[in-house]
Amino acid sequence: MRPFRLAAYVLWAAKEVLTGTWDVISNLFRPGPYGKPMIVELPLRCVTDVEITMMASSITITPGTLVVATGAGTQDAPATLFVHALFGDSEDEVLDGLYDMEDRLLRAMRGRAPGGRP
């Protein structure tokens, strides 16, 4: 664990909570349909219980996203989170944001993030 990178991650996550709060509140007062909700499957690059728990917690505390289920990893497949997202034009857009969060978390925990999606 990298203390300075972890502190930077916490500050970044706090910013995401604030911007997510603004997105949810501003959409409440807009006419028309509210968001474009979807559930996406997120195969993780996190491997330890601590990394997976921190990732799931980071997603859930961010307004507009919620982990609704988990899938245990096997030798052939990574652990998976199923995430309900209120906003996003496509599944790829939502996954890009979630993988950005995972990259930042893994850099804070390991000092580096694996490249690409699993």
Order of helices and strands: HEHEEH
Strand fraction: 15-25%
- Secondary-structure-derived class: alpha+beta
User: If helices are DSSP runs of H or I spanning 4 or more residues, what is the number of helices?
Assistant: 3
Radius of gyration: 15 Å
**How can the largest sheet be summarized?**
3 strands, antiparallel
What is the domain total for the residues? 1
Mean pLDDT across all residues, rounded?
90
Instruction: Work out the helicity level.
Output: 40-55%
Name the poorly predicted regions.
none
Biggest sheet strand line-up: 1-3-2
Ends: how far apart?
22 Å
Shape: globular
Q: What's the count of strands? A: 3
Protein name: Sodium:proton antiporter
InterPro entries: Cation_antiport_E
Keywords: Cell membrane, Membrane, Transmembrane, Transmembrane helix
Membrane topology: Multi-pass membrane protein
In short:
This protein has 118 residues and is α+β, with helices and mostly antiparallel strands.
Notes on the structure:
This protein is α+β, with helices and mostly antiparallel strands and 118 residues long. It has one domain. 50% of the residues lie in helices and 16% in strands. The protein has three helices and three strands. Helix 1 packs antiparallel against helix 3 and helix 2 packs across helix 3 (91-110). The radius of gyration is 15 Å and the shape is globular. This is Sodium:proton antiporter. One of its GO terms (molecular function) is monoatomic cation transmembrane transporter activity.
